[in-house]
Specification:
heterodimer; A: mainly beta; Jelly Rolls; 8-stranded antiparallel beta barrel; rod-shaped; disordered N terminus; disordered C terminus; B: mainly alpha; 35% helix; 5% strand
Chain lengths: 441, 60
């Protein structure tokens, strides 16, 4: 130890040693801070604090090779600080007999100490040890923890065992060592507690995209594609859902104002009215034309209403609205039928005596109607009245617009709910799946 | 996502405003040009595509 003034910071050097088991050269990147070091060659776990590098555990080949995606010795910048990958371990939990494994990378900076990256199925977390303890809140059946003003929900508790190690560790690592690991989530963060005997270590992870890791460490190719939804993966929809419903509310209010505006300012002006009688027994030509009438104002709708006295009968009216000056015609047909009776279920009715249709975009001008009624012969006379109204607001469009605004908002909400469903399906609080069939059997 | 929805909503409301202002309707209407003036004197001479109606006689 120097007793003089502070030495200028020097470039970190790798300390060279040899494995007492196989004799292979060892490199110690985290200097005196390493507690365990694993031989790259024979995978023996050595005591890095012991000058003789005492063998702590012989690594069993049966555990299988698991090359790290970030090769040990790779340097990169995490949140602006340079780190070097010095250690790597695989940890495994068993849920209903199925093993699930994730990887942990130990990063080291001589001034900042250790930091960790975890990876599971292409999902990455930047993790560091907590300096303060979170507060455990136990409510009725709902365990949460609070930390720095945020509430974390319990996600999973499992026994995690170390199944593969490589490089250096700031603790005495052992393959086969098992700890109770509990995760609490508040996406994009996760609080993890690791219980080993009476000792509990807390760490906080923050979800980080694989491509950012690849960029930070200048790794070749691309990161593995994430599979599924990870416990603290931020939902791409969570912030949008609330905002979109707020926007939808604003649009709905605007829609209502538009409806009131159009209803108030529409001319809704009667342009023509005429009463007629159709004799179903007559064999003469039934078609006729009305007197001309004026349609004023801008191009707009013309609502044509037909009121009849049909009774267990029908009338079909073949209409043509013809512009007297230009010869342009709007052809359309309307059926008006009304039936009623009585059967074993009681009285019934079908159809209506009235009908209404809006002819679209009729320019102003002088028009007349050509009307051609049809019905079954021998039913006597049918009285009917025709009324034409100019510029009548079409409220069906407001319904369609409301639906058009509602569908994307509902779709985004559904996708958000589906994302959360997939997240929690992997937890200790998985939503109950409905059975594929009933319990009728 | 929210920006897209905002743009989409403005387009929907814009179309609605245009539909109401221009008097659009969902009704099926056949437009015919150059109907002869003689139709006023002889209405039976004009036959539209909606003529010769076949009434549905089923139902209750």
């Amino acid at each position: 130890m120097s007793t003089g003034g502070p030495n200028p910071p020097s470039t970190p050097h790798v300390k060279a040693m040899n494995c007492p088991s196989c004799g292979a050269a060892l490199s110690l990147r985290s200097f005196t801070q390493a507690v365990s070091v694993v031989c790259d060659s024979c995978h023996s776990i050595l005591d890095a604090q012991d000058p003789q590098l005492k063998i702590l555990q012989q690594f069993k080949k049966a555990t299988g090779e698991d090359p790290p995606l970030i090769p040990l010795g790779t340097r990169g910048r995490i949140r602006g600080t340079p780190y070097e990958a010095v250690g790597f371990q695989r940890r495994t939990i068993h849920v209903e007999g199925i093993p699930y494994s994730w990887h942990e990378y130990i990063l080291f900076n001589p001034y900042k100490g250790f930091r960790y990256l975890t990876e599971y199925n292409g999902h990455w977390n930047d993790t560091s040890t907590l300096r303060a303890l979170p507060t455990l809140n136990s409510h009725t059946g709902d365990v949460t923890v609070s930390y720095l003003g945020e509430t974390y929900q319990h996600f999973q508790t499992a026994q995690a065992s170390t199944t593969y190690v490589l490089g250096e560790f700031p603790w005495q690592v052992r393959v086969g060592e098992a700890n109770e690991v509990t995760d609490y989530i508040c996406p994009p963060r996760v609080l993890s507690s690791e219980r080993s005997g009476n000792e509990v270590t807390w760490s906080m992870g923050e979800y980080i995209a694989g491509r950012d890791i690849w960029k930070a460490f200048s790794l070749p190719d691309g990161p593995p594609e994430p599979i599924g939804v990870y416990e603290n993966q931020p939902s791409p929809f969570s912030t949008d859902t609330k905002t979109i419903w707020t926007i939808f509310g604003a649009f709905a209010i605007f829609l209502l104002l538009m409806m009131l505006g159009f209803a108030s300012f529409a001319r809704d002006e009667q342009a023509f009215q005429g009463a007629y009688i159709f004799d179903t027994n007559a064999r003469s030509e039934a078609s006729f034309v009305t007197d001309p009438f004026e349609l004023k104002g801008r191009t707009s709708t013309l609502e044509l209403s037909t009121t009849t006295n049909v009774d267990n009968n029908w009338i079909y009216l073949n209409y043509a609205l013809i512009n007297q000056d230009s010869g342009q015609a709007y052809d359309f047909g309307r059926e008006v039928s009304y039936y009623h009776g009585y059967d074993q279920d009681g009285s019934w009715t079908e159809g209506s005596r009235n009908d209404s249709v809006a002819i679209p975009s009729v320019p102003p001008g002088t028009y007349f109607l050509r009307v051609e009624p049809e019905s079954d012969s021998g039913h006597g006379t049918i009285h009917y009245e025709i009324t034409a109204k100019r510029d009548v607001p079409q409220f069906s469009f407001f319904g369609i617009a409301l639906l058009a605004l509602l569908v994307p908002a509902a779709l985004i909400t559904w996708r958000s709910m589906n994302f959360e469903h997939l997240r929690w399906a992997e937890s200790d609080h998985a939503p109950m799946e409905s059975s594929s069939d009933g319990d009728d059997d | 996502m929210r920006n897209l929805y905002m743009i989409y909503g403005v387009i929907v409301l814009g179309l609605l405003g245009m539909a109401e202002y221009r008097g659009w309707s969902l009704a099926s209407v056949n437009e015919v040009k150059n109907v002869p003036r003689s139709v006023r004197d002889n209405p039976g001479s004009y036959r539209s595509v909606y003529a010769v109606y076949h009434h549905y006689t089923g139902g209750k």
